[in-house]
Amino acid sequence: MLFNSIDFLLFFPIVTILYFLLPHRVRWVWLLCASYYFYMCWNAKYALLIALSTVITYFSGLLIEGLARQKKLWVALSFLSNLAILFFFKYFDFFLNNLSALCGLLGVTFKQPSFDIVLPVGISFYTFQALSYTMDVYRGEVKAERNLFKYALFVSFFPQLVAGPIERSKNLLHQVNERHTFDADRARDGLLLMLWGMAEKIVIADRVSYLVTYVYDHYTALPGAAVVLATVLFAVQIYCDFSGYSDIAIGAAQVMGFSLMENFRRPYLAISVQDFWRRWHISLSTWFRDYLYIPLGGNRKGTARKYFNLMVTFLTSGLWHGASWNFVVWGGLNGLYQVMGSILAPARERACNALHIDRETLFWRCVRVVFTFCLVDFAWLFFRAPSFRTALDMIGHTVGNFDFSAITGPALYELGLSQPDFTVMFIAIGALVLSDLLRERFGSVRDRLTALPLPVRWTVYLLGTILVLVFGIYGPGYAESQFIYFVF
Hints:
Number of helices: 18
Helix content: 55-70%
Number of domains: 2
Order of helices and strands: HHHHHHHHHHHHHHHHHH
């Protein structure tokens, strides 16, 4: 069930209304049933995988807390069993393909077995959420949950089940037991966030996807400038698609009284790649920081070890995103950017001092933002391309066949979007940039909006809803577009 579907438009109000009408003691049962139903709308049998991961980590938590001398063993078994499930469904074919290629290079005959494995939606997200609980219990940050079914709700909570935010037990688990009363202001704020997320998804991301898909599918017949344009717009698409999902998830939870962690913080206003990763997919980047980078030693064991730990973390993050070498390269590039940035930092500082450059002025901050975006966007090409080889071919094609006329005049409207759609896209992206700039400078735009007089507020609410309905991509003949991160 997609957030941008009629099914969810009916499902969410029903779940929310009944949640507040039911007695407090049974509300969590209702949410657990609703969450499993939500997931089973994709493929009912894969709910067994969530249940299996839940049972493994639930009993692991009890054993870790109860058997202090053997708790490392139970942590290891919990991680190995859950990662084995993830490996089979997400990486087994990738492993076999690479093993077959390696055997071919060595002249060894390898008959690759055939498996029809369908990647379960959101498996990487709920697996990591369950594993973080195991580690939090091991570290003593939370007490092991005694009620299996309340813990199952923590793992399967429907707003963030299939694409995050990847919640921590110390933030979400205790909220299952809290008494939530209906609060009109909180519900209003949640609905506004859901509306903004829907605008990001169906007004911007789904519209941009037509141009991006067309260019990436036909790049050999197009000038390199078209590839550059599509890659820049893919940065917009993936931001609006994923941030849109996160906003809808956080807003839906907020309506029901739950608080989920922030997942995006205006990432394209970052002044360095390191800053970008403090702002992009925050729940995953902090997960890797807390459960991989720091346990590896972080920056506590010398500079060389710090760089090694950083590269391992980002290569693993790339592999988490997809079972393909182009994702590994994407992760490696983001790690390499940070390593090189750290190595070159003293030279940059000396150059700025020698030239009397104040890097905190607005001009130089803009220069840093643009430079960071260029680095991040170049890496996005590997993320979006269907394979590593295709990405390299696209780069070579772009460099050798760059023609700026392909993105000017009438030729611009032959790249998958009509002139009216391109105009809507351009205005919507401008509104997105303006919103991010305002939030970066003044804080929450939503808080300022809700402080306006009642007639003005409702005029803005209705106008925003109408604009989403008029300019959103939906309706007869349109199959609602799946969110990009569902396949991870």
